[in-house]
Amino acid sequence: MATGQTDPHRRERILAAALDLIAEAGVAGASHRRIAARAQVPLGSMTYHFTGIDDLLLQAFTGFARHVVTLFETHLGGATTADEAREAVTDLIHTLSEGPRRDLILTQELYTLAARHEPYRELCARWMRRSRTLLEQHFDAATARQLDALIEGLALHRALDDTPPDRALTREAVARITTTA
């Protein structure tokens, strides 16, 4: 394997390997040795690029959170009317719930860490603020907060349900939250 200087993508490979391993074995199954083996890098690369396993995990989950925010941006970015925004939210929920099982697992692993450790709670808070900011381009702040929770909850329920609700039910739930009486 090439040295760090001739392997400019080593750090990114380590972060990707960490997320892949977490999706497969959980945070509890992630170690420097296992991540290095999966990334096909020398074990010493781990301490060269990261101060420890906590630093590595936090950076890996930070990249994952950016990935999810990018999905929000992609879906909501083209909406110019409230109806288009509602449909974009519906599409987003279905994309998240029908997407890679890996993303669902990583989200839940991150939430578990956030429930126990402040740096991950701060990461989730930044992620939620960014998601709500994107939603607030189309809806008021209170509605954006409710939609953010709906997106997370419905995506999880749809992903884990043997017979997930169809788009019509998702569209109706989005409409109920976003349509004023």
TrEMBL record:
Residues in HTH tetR-type domain copies: 8-68
Keyword 4Fe-4S belongs to the record: no
Pfam families linked: TetR_C_31 (PF17940), TetR_N (PF00440)
Keyword Transcription regulation: yes
Positions of the DNA-binding region: 31-50
Keywords: DNA-binding, Transcription, Transcription regulation
SUPFAM superfamilies: Homeodomain-like, Tetracyclin repressor-like, C-terminal domain
GO molecular function: DNA binding
PROSITE patterns: HTH_TETR_2 (PS50977)
Protein name: TetR family transcriptional regulator
